[in-house]
Amino acid sequence: MWGKHLIIDMSAGERERVQSAQHISRFVETLVETIGMKAYGAPLLEHFAEHLPEAAGYSLVQLIETSAITGHFCDLSGDAYIDILSCKDFDAELAVEVVRAAFRPQHINFITLVRQAVTPRTSYMLAAEYVLADE
Fold first, then answer.
1. Which of the two residues, 116 and 80, has the higher pLDDT score?
2. Which of the residues 34, 38, 56, 82 has the least number of beta carbons within 10 Å of its own beta carbon?
3. Total structural domains in the chain?
């Protein structure tokens, strides 16, 4: 196994939280600490697509020693799409709970992938866990 990739889709989070650069920065700092990672520098956080209200929102990149955390947050809907990729193992359910606490979404879907390069002598390994959590 090379690493773990957690893909989180959340819908209808509290918009004032999704629209706040300060809140998103605090969220990623908490996430990094909670899942036992080490941030590599400050997060890159930029607001994009202001000409398209349905797409406008912040994009996040936080490098970590073992890879990266990325996110895209939609101002209008409160939706967010967050990825954690790390060659160091981490608790995926704990990461989802950090997202839930930070943004208070109505729904969260997530899937965990085990990443492994395919070689002629190995088959592709995929360990997926898909959870639909309606609250």
1. 80
2. 38
3. 1
